[in-house]
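user: can you give me the structure for this one chain? tokens are fine.
assistant: on it. calling the predictor now.
[tool input]
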Amino acid sequence: MSLPLYRDHGAPSRLRADGHMGLWWDKFFHFYNASWQIEDGDKSEWIRRVSDRRSSPENRQVIERFVIRQMELGQCLGAKQKVFETQWHFVTGLGIPHPVENGFSWHPTLGVPYLTGSAVKGLLRAWVEEWLFEDGQEEEKKERIHRWFGRDENDEKSEKAKAGDLIFFDAIPVQPVETEPPMEMGPDITNPHMGKWLEQGASITDVSEEPEKVPADYHSPIPIVFLVVKQAKFLFQIAPRGNTNPDEVVEAMKELQAALEWLGAGAKTAVGYGRMRDNVEQFEALQQKLPHQITETEFVTMTAAPSGTTVQVATEKEELVRCTGLPHIEAKANWGTGATLFLAQVTRRDGIAVKAVWDGW
């Protein structure tokens, strides 16, 4: 078999257990013959070999640590988090060029299937635009779209471009790629009966002379094999941007859950791919692995007027912590060096305040 690399490259013929599956899939296809052609059955064999492997213990630890770090980051940003489990097959990135005809999207550093944050945002926006509002609610729909997803200069000529109030994280699997549950990958097929219609149908001049270009059920099916995720669980996170009301994040996650259940994520959703359901047990199991932290609302003391949106404050437990998200407040003449009480959400880790976010007056 030939491999499109330099001579004496030393590339192995099979992916190692601790190897990067995405890099292997994209760069090391080695089923070309001496004429740089791919023979019948070799595409299926390549997909089988890629999916027929077990991750090393080191890979599992890397993914678990990454997921925990992402959850900690999300919590610090006030994100709403959920784990969703696929109800059937999931695939994304089919349009990426590859020798087997159908590509696949891999996380650039983890080498696992994932869904980009922009794809998550696009799914939720499609749900809001097409399914969330009734006829006659165009203004409400427009306002929601601009608030959640932002606007560019083409949306409203009278208003400047603006980022949305929500931050969408990549959806990442909570387990590594395996040949068996909990995360299983493998080949799937599609059987087009269109003959040469899709590639040459536009050039038909005489139907009677070119029957092979006409879409009809007398053509023999041509199976096309592609790689799919057969079973997996993904962590989804949506965080507020700036001083966004936390209720907006809760509402957005609720609608994302509906979109995943009814529309699905990724490619081939029209035939049932990509649909997911909430997996509370898996999410609670992940939470148990997080460093202990509690977010609670309590009074904090501001000892001086803030000059911006961040100020050092004292909590009820006589701790000093920097509070973010404060609106700009004009200093009052009678403030002096006195103290002002206001509410904040204080996040504690192992009993120690690590963050405070303004929660209202």
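assistant: here you go. Helices lie at 21-27, 42-51, 57-76, 117-132, 138-149, 197-200, 246-262, 280-288. The longest helix spans residues 57-76.
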